[in-house]
Amino acid sequence: MDLIIRNASPKDLPVILDIINQAILTTTAIYDYEARTLEEQTAWFEKMIEDGMPVIVAEHDKKVIGYGSYNIFKPKIGYRFSVEHSIYLDEKSRGLGVGGRLLKSLIQRAGESGIHTMIGVIDASNRGSIEFHKKFGFIEKGYLREVGFKFDQWLDAVFMQLILEED
Description:
GO molecular function, one term: acyltransferase activity, transferring groups other than amino-acyl groups
Protein name: GNAT family N-acetyltransferase
InterPro entries: Acyl_CoA_acyltransferase, GNAT_dom
Order of helices and strands: EHHEEEHEHEE
Structural class: alpha+beta
Oligomer: single chain
Keywords: Acyltransferase, Transferase
Largest sheet: 7 strands, mixed
Number of strands: 7
CATH topology: Aminopeptidase
Pfam family, one: Acetyltransf_1
Distance between the termini: 37 Å
C-alpha cells in the first residue's frame, strides 16, 4: 500500500473528526460517549500544536485514512518524559499495516523529542490492539478492572509500556 505519513493540518480535521466519532459511537477503543464537534476537534488540535505534541495522519491516494498522536501522560512536571499515545483508523483501513506505520512514526518522534517512555491504555477486550502493541515492544504493565463504563457494561483497561531509552 502506497502510504504517506505526515503532520496533520487543519484541513485534515473533518476526516480526523469522522474517524474519531466512528470509534466513539461504535467501539470501546475510547471511553467517550458523545460524538465530537468540529469546534471541539479543532480546539484539541490547536492545543496539541501549541503544546508541541504531534498529530500525524496516514494518507493513501490523497485521502486521510488514519491518524495518531501523543500527549504527556499526566499533567504533572515529573511526567514530562512520559506520553500516552492514540491511533485511530478509518474502519476500512484496519488490518492493512496503517496502524503500524503510524505507531513507528510516533515512536521515532518520541525518541527524537527526548521522551523516555510511551504508554498505551487499551480496552482489555481489544486483544487485537494488545497483540499489535506487543509486536512493537510494548509490555503489559497493568490491568485495571472496571475502570470504564460504556455500552451498559463495565470495562477493564490494560496499560502497556515501551521504554525508549535505557539508562
